[in-house]
Amino acid sequence: MSQKTALITGVTGQDGAVLADFLIKKGYVVHGMRDYSAVPDQSRIAHLEDLKLHYGDMTDGGNIYRLLETIKPDEIYNLAAMSHVHVSFDVPESTANINAMGPLRILEAMRTMGVQNDMRLYQASSSEMFGRAPAPQNEDTKFEPCSPYGTAKLYAYWSVRNYRDAYGLYAANGILFNHESPLRGEEFVTRKITCAVCEIEAGLRQKIKLGNLNAMRDWGYAQDYMEGAWQILQQDRPDDYVLATGKSYTVRDFVERAFAVIGKQIIWDGEGIQEQGRDKITGDILVEIDPALFRPTEVHALIGDASKAKRILGWQPKISFDDLVADMMQADRIMKPQINVA
Ligand code: F7E
Fold first, then answer.
1. Distance 321 CA to ligand 1 centre (A)
2. Per-residue pLDDT tens for 108-120?
3. Which helix (H) or strand (E) holds 78?
4. Per-residue pLDDT tens over the stretch 22-42
5. Considering the chain, what percentage of its residues have pLDDT values greater than 70?
6. b/e map of 73-82 (b: 16 or more CB within 10 Å)?
7. In this structure, what are the phi and psi dihedrals at residue 132, rounded to the nearest 5 degrees?
8. Is the CB of 211 within 6 Å of ligand 1?
9. Is the full-model pTM beyond 0.90?
10. Can you tell me which atom of ligand 1 is nearest the CA of 290?
11. Ligand 1: does its nearest atom lie under 6 Å from the Cβ of 147?
12. b or e along 283-294 (b: 16 or more beta carbons within 10 Å of the residue's beta carbon)?
């Protein structure tokens, strides 16, 4: 079989870097789209010498068309997004432009080029689309998004389905629940916690400030999920799949597990925004609540049911929650003291 070509949008992010690495190892020619930034961050992909980089912008339809026309990828993975849910409340219009209109621009380019099965699109849909729908959530659950991020992702989800039905495009949604790794951005809660705990251990800071400790998330491991994204595009027919672990933990659980790795047990006292997490032995305050970190509307509980992916793709996550915390902590225990010394 001839060598396949893939285009990954959002290649500089956690998922882009993980997927690029995975596809290169599978023998793909991998192209990555990065956006222009005055202060570029290519740290996650610096080691991928065979990755072919292109400037691109999800708000520029001509740019997207030209990239598809020149690269002619067999598979497109649309991972580019304004991915921070809280920030999307501050920049709802640009979130919609990137997360909703961006995928539409890809679909329009595919439609204009008249591609069918020979150019396949994976759209990074999100469990945020479920919003406040009762858990567990699967492909048949009614969507109730409650953030500009979630509503924009839902527009893209339906566009994928509509273009699939209307024009016969090969376009598929992966509805991925939260997935983390040591490459996760520090603005997301898991990495924020592991970085802070390692800095506390190294004596570089005293405490961490967090928002809603009671939010429940179904946290998996990014490598497992990007393998699932690839599997979704290998099916004969395009379809939509939930990828999740089926287990949910609170932010509070994550905090306790991360501190346990450095030998600290957290005792909680106080309520609401007065709540504090203290070191059981020394009584030092290690966790405080910052009301500014609460979202105007919050997704309270996400628990995914990935039985369709298991049945049809044979996909199931390999890394448990405890292993995820341990892996992220292990990486940051090495990285954090070094970065702060440099
Ligand atoms: O928040 C709570 C926060 O920002 C998780 C993105 O990849 O997954 C991610 O979205 C929970 C929320 O991820 C802090 O309120 C408490 O309940 O890590 P997060 P997210 O919003 O679930 C989905 C699937 C995506 O598609 C998104 O692109 O943690 N939380 N305190 C906090 N969250 C943050 N960021 N910072 C805090 O200090």
1. 16
2. 999 999 998 899 9
3. strand 75-78
4. 999 999 999 999 998 888 889
5. 99
6. bbbbbbbbbb
7. -95, 10
8. yes
9. yes
10. 38
11. no
12. eeebbbbeeeee
